[in-house]
Amino acid sequence: MKALRFSWQGALSLLLCLAAALTLPLLPADAGAPISNGTVFVIFILIAGAAALSFTAQSDALGAAILFFGAHAAAWLLLSGISGNDGQALAPFFIIIAAAWLLAWRCVSILSTIRAQSASGSYLLRLLIPAIFGAWILIVWEAATRGAGIPFIILPPPSAIGARIASSLPTLWTDVQQTIFKSVLSGYVIGCASGFIVAILADRFAFLRRGLLPIGNFVSALPIIGVAPIMVMWFGFDWQSKAAVVVVMTFFPMLVNTVAGLAAAGNMERDLMRTYASSYWQTLFKLRLPAAAPFIFNALKINSTLAMIGAIVAEFFGTPMSGMGFRISTENGRLNLDMVWAEIAVAAIAGSVFYGIVAILERMTTFWHPSIRGGQT
Questions:
Q1: Cα dist from 215 to 154, 252, 307, whole Å
Q2: How far apart are CA 125 and CA 165, in angstroms?
Q3: How many angstroms separate the CA atoms of 22 and 92, rounded?
Q4: How far apart, in whole angstroms, are the C-alpha atoms of residue 146 and residue 252?
Q5: What contacts 182, CB < 8 A, 6 or more positions away?
Q6: What is the rounded CA–CA span in Å between residue 342 and residue 166?
Q7: Which of 64, 260, 267, 342 makes a 20 to 30 Å CA pair with 73?
Q8: Residue 287 and residue 62: Cα distance in Å, rounded?
Q9: How far apart are CA 250 and CA 260, in angstroms?
Q10: CA–CA distance from 317 to each of 230, 287, 372 (Å)?
Q11: Percent of residues in the chain assigned helix, strand, coil, to nearest 5
């Protein structure tokens, strides 16, 4: 087993820790809920100890574990200490946050070099690394808003957003049902399916391909903020008009990508199919559609995010008394910014889950493709 190499992140973290120790305290003396000296001592021990021990750890996994624990335990103690002292953090508080962030950076760097010995280990690493990135976005966000006293109306801290999500679950669930289960899913299925079918027809008939693709590029450039009110006037204020906007946004990405994918099959493979006297439809189903699968799934992944955006924006222009776009618009007018951010967070989570499901289906369906096999360990 090899020892870890010296890292500039660990060295800089130690220097920042020393600088913070020389400029204490973390909070002013008259703070309402001061951080105890014992807690400050534990924070310094966690950061300095993790940085020092990671240099001498006997395995990459052990060094990453030490850095992970030290960085996140110190950050948790700091954020717990700033609660009730909003806007009173002094420079050493932010210096220590930066030192802990550097340890997390070093942890992620080590994890990215580890090659798992099993499929489950590789899957765990693929989840852990972005999870640490996301956690530190929230940690820095919380530290900045709480420590610097950023006004709530400008940017609420993640803890307040999380509390609002927990207290508004029935409302959020109603909005998710209206926007995602009705508008997004129905429009996504109709738009992608119709785009795929028209792409097959365009591939079969050259005049359709030459006529539709330029129109597709034109329609793709139409601003959604202009299309949405038209669809509301055509299809009414309920979910059907939002689904129509989603259809418009997802149809042409699927069309263009599928047509490009159908042209991706190599000439040698096509010649081989001709030598077998294969018909157009036999060549399509046995050669060209499998070759086009990565392009089709690429369109499905792009459309998974476009559908969310289209439905939410369309709800700004008229909807029943529910829906994520409706809630964002009305709560923003009431200056209930924590509810606005709660809806944004739920939309981001839902969009990520939607994208992830499509990505998993892609890996299950196109496991034979070099882009999938090349990413497996």
A1: 42, 9, 20
A2: 28
A3: 9
A4: 45
A5: 239, 242, 243
A6: 9
A7: 342
A8: 48
A9: 16
A10: 9, 45, 41
A11: 80, 0, 20
Q: Are 308 and 246 in contact (CB under 8 A)?
A: no
Joined tokens for residue 219: 């329609």
Are residues 246 and 311 in contact, defined by beta-carbon separation less than 8 angstroms? yes
pLDDT per residue over 323-342, tens digit each? 888 888 888 888 888 899 99
Stronger pLDDT, 268 or 179, i.e. the higher one: 179
Of 63 and 6, the structure prediction assigns the larger pLDDT to: 63
- Confidence class of residue 3 from pLDDT cuts 50, 70 and 90? very low
Question: Which residue bears the tokens 């310094």?
Answer: 44
pTM: 0.79
Q: Please report the pLDDT score of residue 1 as a whole number.
A: 43
User: Residue 205: which H helix or E strand, with range?
Assistant: none
What is the pLDDT, as a whole number, of residue 275?
Answer: 74
CB 229 within 8 A of CB 314: no
Nearest to 49 by CA among 3, 88, 10, 21: 10
Q: Which residues contact 159 (CB under 8 A, 6 or more apart)?
A: 142, 146
